[in-house]
Write a structure and sequence with these properties.
It comes from Hymenobacter yonginensis. This is NAD-dependent succinate-semialdehyde dehydrogenase. By secondary structure, this protein is an alpha/beta fold. The protein has 15 helices and 20 strands. The chain is 40% helix and 20% strand. A 7-stranded mixed β-sheet has the order 12-13-14-11-10-16-17, sandwiched between helices. A 6-stranded mixed β-sheet has the order 7-6-5-8-9-19, with helices on both faces. Helix 2 packs antiparallel against helix 4 and helix 9 packs across helix 10. The N and C termini lie far apart (72 Å). The mean pLDDT is 97. The chain binds 4-oxobutanoic acid (SSN). 4-oxobutanoic acid binds next to loops.
Length: 467
């Protein structure tokens, strides 16, 4: 794929970039490796000062960053500003808590003193997607830099300006330039980068296929990976739930980033007595979303990030309809090769249909009928993915009990699934492994080193020590 900014709403190429050669990339790895040796010794107070400045810059530049997201991947301006502010929050969070999260863990043993220290591991390669071009990177970079690591970013090839703008923020904040670098490279250079001994670990957010490939390469070179992959989150609605609130939130949850979020609700599993009412209300709320140019202030959802993504989604929908799915709300692309995709609802979703088995990365809501709460949990868990999920019920204790039975990295009761700096984020099954955010996220890329100080042998009183 070429490294270029192509506005998905107009189809116009805004900027093209020449991909870095291997020799340029390798030079940057050398600089990063050198920087890692000194950055690891920088006191927390200094790292904190710089990270707080990065947060300020994210706030100050929110309009500029939102414009870049709009033109590179179609995110409406208001959502882009919100993303920049969430990144600032994450920087502040780790600025405030990193030292405490990485403090020694004292372990009681027969030693005089024994503890786990958490030490930086060096250069970490981050392979990141276009859907939240700043947030996905910052939630890696803020804890990594605060832990004393350095980051190399290989961003998706359709968001190069976002990648460079973030690099500039860290540099303008005062981080030594080699502690965070954007590599404008094609995917052909990922393997040699992972193979390089100076790159110590890899984090990837992206598709299951990309995750499997990167993890296999990293395994070959004995490098740790954290993988945050796809999701097909269940949104369970029990008959006692407030259906109006559930349906309104369902529409919002499906429309996050025009449906292009790993934790957008995708499968709406509804108890039979409230199924019709839920579909009808959700339809009303989906139709109320205003599409348009992401650069227009009143747009609520823009195009998908690329026209080929909309073509692929159309194929998944059409195949599912041929396989028996029923259209409850018509929408989709106006014609092939265009990126705008209007929301749709499909029901009668059955195993063997693409809609049942695959992730649909766009605004298509799948409605599944559940006989009862147990059946709803069974359906929720009958998925290759396990990223997030939510349960809607008037009985909060029952909601919590069901939440514990859903196989996912996060389950919310009476709320849509969202990420936040304080809570761990990640999945089970084909949604990946490892955790980002919270104190767990910062401990993924550190050497958890055991240190043991033996008791001193004191010579018995009155006896002379014999050498
Ligand atoms: O696409 C997945 C991440 C979305 C989020 O953290 O809000």
């Amino acid at each position: 794929m070429p490294i270029e900014s192509r506005n998905p709403y107009t189809g116009r190429v805004e900027r093209r970039f020449r991909a870095f050669s291997w020799s340029k990339t390798e030079r940057i790895v050398t600089q990063s490796h050198r920087a890692a040796a000194t950055w690891r010794t920088t006191p927390f107070a200094e790292r904190t000062r710089l990270m707080r400045r990065a947060a300020e810059l994210l706030r100050e530049r929110q309009d500029e960053l939102a414009r870049l997201m709009a033109v590179e991947m179609g995110k409406p301006l208001a959502d882009g500003r919100a993303e920049a502010l969430k990144c600032a929050l994450c920087c502040d969070y780790y600025a405030e808590h990193a030292e405490q999260f990485l403090a020694d863990d004292i372990i009681k043993t027969e030693a005089q003193r024994s503890f786990i220290s958490h030490e930086p591991i060096g250069v970490v390669l981050a392979i990141m997607p276009w859907n939240f071009p700043f947030w996905q990177v910052v939630r890696f970079a803020a804890p990594a830099l605060m832990a004393g690591n350095v980051g190399l970013l290989k961003h998706a090839s359709n968001v190069p300006q976002c990648a460079l703008a973030l690099e500039k923020i860290f540099h303008d904040a005062g981080f030594p330039p080699a502690t965070f670098r954007t590599l404008l490279i094609g995917s052909d250079l990922i393997e040699p980068l992972i193979a390089d001994d100076r790159v110590r670990a890899v984090t990837l957010t992206g598709s299951e296929a990309a995750g499997a490939q990167v993890a296999a390469t990293a395994g070959r070179y004995i490098k740790k990976t954290v993988l945050e992959l796809g999701g097909s989150d269940a949104f369970i609605v029990l008959a006692d739930a407030d259906i109006e609130v559930a349906a309104k939130t369902a529409a919002q949850a499906r429309m996050i980033n025009a449906g292009q979020s790993c934790i957008a609700a995708k499968r709406f599993i509804v108890e039979k007595p409230v199924l019709k009412e839920f579909i009808s209300k959700m339809k009303t709320h989906l139709l109320a979303f205003r599409p348009g140019d992401p650069l227009a202030e009143d747009t609520q959802y823009g195009p998908l990030a690329r026209p080929d993504l909309a073509d692929e989604l159309t194929e998944q929908v059409n195949d599912s309809i041929k396989q028996g799915a029923k259209v409850e709300l018509y929408g989709g692309q106006s014609e092939p090769g265009t990126a705008l995709f209007r929301p749709m609802i499909l029901s009668n979703i059955r195993p063997g249909q693409r809609a049942y088995d695959e992730e649909l990365f766009g605004p298509v809501a799948l409605v599944l009928e559940a006989k009862d709460a147990d059946d709803a949990v069974r359906l929720a868990n009958d998925s290759r993915f396990g990223l997030g999920g939510s349960v809607w019920t008037a009985d909060v204790a029952r909601g919590e009990a069901l939440a514990r039975r859903v196989e996912a990295g996060a389950v919310f009761v009476n709320s849509l699934v969202k990420s936040a700096p304080e809570m761990p984020f990640g999945g089970v099954k084909k949604s990946g492994y490892g955790r980002e955010l919270s104190y767990l996220g910062i401990r993924e890329f550190v050497n958890q080193k055991s240190i043991w100080i033996a008791k001193e042998e004191k010579p018995a009183a009155g006896k002379k020590k014999v050498e």
